[in-house]
Specification:
With 334 residues, the chain is of the alpha/beta class. The protein has two domains: 195 residues, P-loop containing nucleotide triphosphate hydrolases (Rossmann fold); 64 residues, no CATH class. It is built from 13 helices and twelve strands. The strands form two sheets. An eight-stranded mixed beta sheet has the order 6-7-8-3-9-10-12-11, sandwiched between helices. Strands 2-1-4-5 form a four-stranded antiparallel beta sheet. α2 packs antiparallel against α3 and α6 packs across α7. The protein starts with 5 loop residues before the first strand and ends with a strand. The mean pLDDT is 92.
């Protein structure tokens, strides 16, 4: 079987806030293949949304590197600052000479400048091949803009000026997400939550992206609407050949939709495996805790269901992510 080409590669991603006092992401690494649905799951505040926002460049990343279609699109400064700090520390401890220290500092600054230069060469059209569907379908749509203006905004930013072309594309994309073209002249407040999310999806796919970052797109919706929107995303994935980064706190939602799942806890990936493997053989105690929390419509099972509580020790958080078996990675003692 031919291995799929990598579309997105994240290496040692770190995102710190408040001058480094809050570590939202701390060494996150993963790769997404073309045509794959890769899901990130975890509790609120674990860093899922921050990962998506960092990838799409809504944040300047603190450390690490992000590659899209083989090109470096983001680089953090922290890695190079740490190398310089280590060189100065080694000089103070007389492990290296002044000239060696100066050489290391000069090299690190040069490498960072070169990598930063690479990211600035990336054209806007290449970055628009990544689009994001936001969690809240109410606040993510401008209430003063019509549906047509919301969906067509990306095209206009890209430089499309032909009104007939814009009109046709907006009409086509509305049909594609299950809405009628007549809705184009309405405002967001005139729609239900599910319809608003479809508008958000239409805004993303009109740019003909390769990667969709779906940030908990169904968490604010009713159960029946959740299924409809999830099925829509699955259909669009196959019809348009999309790659999807699906962010959710609900393992039951991603189970049948994902090819691979990464479980995140406190800014780190604690387990990564195929969907089938993760549910069949969870290794990390936090993953087991999440799985034990999934309710089932079976009263007998629910009466006897045992909830697993995860209380990590400081040592657990420092364990490296290792490949326990082929394609199954976890932060566990081997």
């Amino acid at each position: 079987m031919e291995e799929k080409e990598s579309l997105l590669r994240v290496e040692n991603l770190r995102q710190y806030f408040n001058r480094g006092s809050f570590r939202a992401l701390d060494g996150v690494s993963f790769e997404i293949k073309k045509g794959e649905v890769f899901s990130i799951v975890g509790e609120s505040g674990c860093g899922k949304t921050t990962t998506g926002r960092a990838i799409i460049k809504l944040y300047n990343i603190t450390g690490g590197q992000i590659f899209f279609n083989g090109k470096l699109i983001s680089v953090g400064k922290l890695d190079f600052e740490e190398n310089i700090k280590q060189a100065k520390s080694d000089l103070a401890a007389k492990k290296i000479s002044k000239s060696e220290c100066a050489k290391i500092i000069s090299e690190q600054k040069k490498i960072y400048r070169e990598k930063l230069g690479e990211t600035k060469k990336i054209k806007r059209d290449e970055l628009t091949k990544m689009q994001m569907i936001f969690q809240d379908p109410v606040t993510s749509l401008d209430p003063r803009m019509t549906v047509r203006e919301i969906i067509a905004e990306g095209l206009r930013i890209r430089g499309v000026r032909d009104k007939k072309e814009i009109e046709q594309k907006v009409s086509d994309v509305l049909k594609r997400v299950g809405l009628v073209p007549e809705y184009a002249d309405r405002y967001p407040h005139e729609f239900s939550g599910g319809q608003r999310q479809r508008i958000g999806i239409a805004r993303a796919i009109i740019m003909e992206p390769e990667l969709i970052i779906a940030d908990e797109p169904v968490s604010a919706l009713d159960v029946s609407i959740k299924a409809q929107v999830t099925n829509l995303l699955n259909d669009l994935r196959h019809d348009m050949g999309l790659t999807v980064l699906f962010i959710s706190h609900d393992l039951s939602v991603v189970k049948y939709f994902s090819d691979r799942i990464a479980v995140m806890y406190f800014g780190k990936i604690v387990e990564l495996a195929s969907s089938q493997e993760l549910f069949a053989n969870p290794l990390h105690p936090y993953t087991k805790s999440l799985l034990s929390a999934i309710p089932l419509p079976d009263p007998d099972y629910e009466r006897s269901r045992k909830r697993i509580v995860y209380n990590p020790s400081p040592e657990d958080r420092e364990l490296p992510l290792v490949e326990v078996r082929s394609g199954h990675w976890a932060r566990v003692r081997v």
